[in-house]
Amino acid sequence: MKNHSAITEFILMGLSSSPEHQMILFWSFTFLYGVALISNTLIVLAVSTCSKLHTPMYFLLINLSILNVFSVSVTVPKMLQTILAKQKSITFAGCIAQVYLFIMALGTELLLLAFMAFDRYAAICQPFQYMVIMRKEFCIGTMAGLWLLGMVNASVHTGLVAQLSFCDSDLINHFFCELPPMFKISCSDTSLNETMVFAASVVIAIGSCALTLTSYWFIVQSIFRIRSTEGKKKAFSTCSYHLLIVSVYYSTIIYTFLRPASAYSLEEDKIIAILYSVVTPVLNPLIYSLRNTDVKEALTKLIAKRIFQKD
């Protein structure tokens, strides 16, 4: 019987064992990863170089883009490697590092989305006090606190999973090291791990979701008071897209982490994990930024500047 100190590596089973699916998966996820990487990086560069966009909303947007690049880079490159490699292994230390980095990015992004919703509430419902509410010190301090909370939450879960023993199997039925499939193959008592995951899901995921929905409830009420039909239509269009991506993100994470281990369906959970680990980082730039006129103008100037510099 091997305990956690004797395990040197795990085998990631990936999304499919079918040879004919491997190259389709490889090129599909390479494309998605490229889009996520390029679009989020462009947003960071555009906002950083355009003084017009140095506002609280875009400061939060930069943090969201950084988290998107971070989270998708933790999972997808390793998955692409396992698709191409005959040996689909990841070291024990590498697996633990992946758990920590992904949970940190996930938790921080959940909290950030709630803060972004509050920012929109302040801008729309309290326009005359917006710059007082969302002053520079408050934004930087709150954002630092969110990153710190994400790190502490990840440290707790990573520390607990590192203490588990793995006796019967080193096969992780997933495309990256995530908590539910690791609980499945552990021969230790995972009740404490599951309790902490449940508690974190309630506090961070459901708490952030409740704050986000509350903010949008007040925003929708304010929109109804807009007299212009065109203004209402534009505001509803923006809010509906924001709510769509937030709903998908929160619902998939709550569904994955709020269930007991006995209810896990690993094949189904792999598909759901794609939504919050890969698809969301691709959609966020489109929903939050590329539909925004100011961001599009800044991106156009940035790209034009680079082209003329080369010429």
Describe it for me?
The chain has helices at residues 19-49, 56-84, 92-125, 130-133, 136-162, 179-185, 191-224, 229-257, 266-288, 293-310; strands spanning 9-12, 89-91, 171-172. It has 311 residues and is mainly alpha-helical. It has a 3-stranded mixed sheet. Helix 1 packs parallel to helix 9 (266-288), helix 3 (92-125) packs parallel to helix 7 (191-224) and helix 8 (229-257) runs antiparallel to helix 9. The longest helix has 34 residues, at 92-125. It starts with 8 loop residues before the first strand and ends with a helix.
Indicate the proportion of strand residues. under 5%
How would a crystallographer describe the biggest sheet?
A: 3 strands, mixed
Low-confidence stretches: 1-5
Mean pLDDT, rounded to whole units? 86
Shape designation = globular
> Percent helix among the residues?
over 70%
The number of strands is: 3
Q: Determine the N-to-C terminus distance.
A: 65 Å
User: Which structural class fits the helix and strand makeup?
Assistant: mainly alpha
Spatial strand arrangement across the major sheet: 2-1-3
Number of helices: 10
Oligomer designation: single chain
Alpha-carbon Rg, integer? 21 Å
Order of helices and strands: EHHEHHHEHHHHH
